[in-house]
Amino acid sequence: MKWRFQWNFPILFSPHDPKTLYAGANVLMKTTDEGLHWQPISPDLTRNDKSKQGPTGGPITKDNTSVEYYDTIFTIDESPVTKGVIWAGADDGLVHVTRDGGKSWTNVTPVGIPEWIQINSIAASPHEAGAAYIAATMYKLDDHNPYLYKTSDFGKSWKKIVNGIPAGDFTRVIREDPNRRGVLVAGTETALYISSDDGENWRKFQLNVPATPITDLVFHKREDDLIVATQGRSFYVLDDMGIVRQLLAPARAGGTRLLRPEDTYRLGGGFGRGSGPAGQNPPAGAVIYYSLADKPKGDVTLEFYDAAGKLIRTISSREVPRQTPQGDADEDDGPRVPQGATRAPAEAGINRFVWDMRHADATGFPGLIMWAGNLRGPLIAPGKYEVRLAVDGQTVSQQFNVKKDPRTFTTPEDSSRQIALSLQLRDKLSQANEGVIKIREAKRQLDPYTKSDIKAVADEARELARKLSAVENELYQTKNQSNQDPLNYPIKLNNKLAALGGVVAANDTAPTSQSQMVFEELATKVNAQLSSLDRLLKDDLARFNKLVRDQNVPAVVVK
């Protein structure tokens, strides 16, 4: 064969020119016109041992297609720091580097590395042009030991760096963190490892990855993620390497540690999920990590503030009853919209809380049934935010960013208008529901008086209860007993507000003039009912209380 390519020959786009593509045979190939023309830019970078280039498989399963020949380039990488610095490692143990884009090559194979070892991966440092790392495997010759090496002088000298990786767990891949010099990750036949001191020491970094061959690792620099490829056990993504780097740093005195949250996208519906087998999506919200030396004696609180220092939401470790509607019916009676987490964990060690990036929910009441509406507070706008952790008299804070959905064209002004109207809707919905709560409390206390032996008291109690019910029935459809009842009985003011809130929040756009007009109309009607309620509680209830006092019976008291 003129050119020797093996089954999984390396292919690499240049980090400096997206039109430059490299492919590894026994020489390094290059194209700049999408493969219309290829040219070799190196001599043979292998041992070219002809005894390793014959048919394989023996007489029964003979294979002479050449893809199982030895003496091929197995891995390549170009320095992200300096254009034209290209590294190549072969499956026969040789390592070469060029510093001029392939015009001249130097054999920089580490001294003492086993002969015929497979250079499984080579990684140019994203921080230093002369630095690179290699992971090699010797398992085909019954040597299962790990082989990792690093250089900082373009391969003139190499250092073996395997301390902490046990014998028998052979190495497949190594990469350096592009956002932190000296932080390395390595994949072996069974596990994932991490080093914070440029490979001097390694420790297990398995998390929830199964014991499986780790075949490749990629850092997504912009999103600060680590992507892990395995042999037969799927892909894994560590969504926030920033958290890992913070945990690698020494902890401060005091034992309480709030890690800086990863910048988060504002996605109203979270991440979609297709049908059939699918991976686990990232949580829909801002992920807050904090570590506690011991289990706290008191409550743990998380407070979220906007850029102006205004408090948006407070989350406590104390259990708080949730005011969730009994039903959130829609036309297809589909899945209910989940509410965000309401309690902050408070355990010794690392704690994780996912904030749904929403303002506080609207007020609800037991048995509330609404059609195509819910109590969820509106999503915050993109911008800068701060989280404060308070525990046992100590407060620490971190800032983070909420970024807009990159698929949208929403302006900051659009977001401000959307949030403003959404908050108005939430507050007016709360006022309507709080009115229902007041009415029901008053009616609960009035009920015994409707059965009074004193006719004047009973008549007045029934009349006042009737007037209160009239207001209640305008604010809420009291005939609703099941999620489908709104099909039988028309929705009332609080449900209309909630449904309009869903319309306003449905897309990342400014609210329409129609939505604004409908809100003003509904708000006017709610205000009228609340004014009537206020008069009933101040005037009519005062007269009733005077009546029962004159009859020497206890009065009704509404908080």
What does this structure look like?
The structure is a single chain. α2 (412-450) packs antiparallel against α4. The chain starts with 10 loop residues before the first strand and ends in a 9-residue tail after the last helix. It contains 5 helices and 29 strands. Residues 326-339 have low confidence and may be disordered. β11 (143-151) and β12 (159-160) form a beta hairpin. The chain has helices at residues 241-248, 412-450, 455-475, 493-504, 513-550, and strands at 11-14, 17-24, 28-31, 39-40, 73-78, 86-90, 95-98, 106-107, 118-124, 132-138, 143-151, 159-160, 171-176, 184-188, 192-195, 203-204, 214-220, 225-230, 235-238, 257-258, 264-265, 286-292, 300-306, 311-316, 327-329, 349-355, 369-371, 383-391, 394-403. Helix content is 21%, strand content 27%. The protein is elongated, with a radius of gyration of 34 Å. It has 559 residues and is of the alpha+beta class. The strands form 8 sheets. It has a 5-stranded mixed sheet, with no helix packed on it. It has 3 domains: 11-248, Methylamine Dehydrogenase, Chain H (7 Propeller), CATH 2.130.10; 257-267 and 283-403, Sandwich (Immunoglobulin-like), CATH 2.60.40; 412-550.
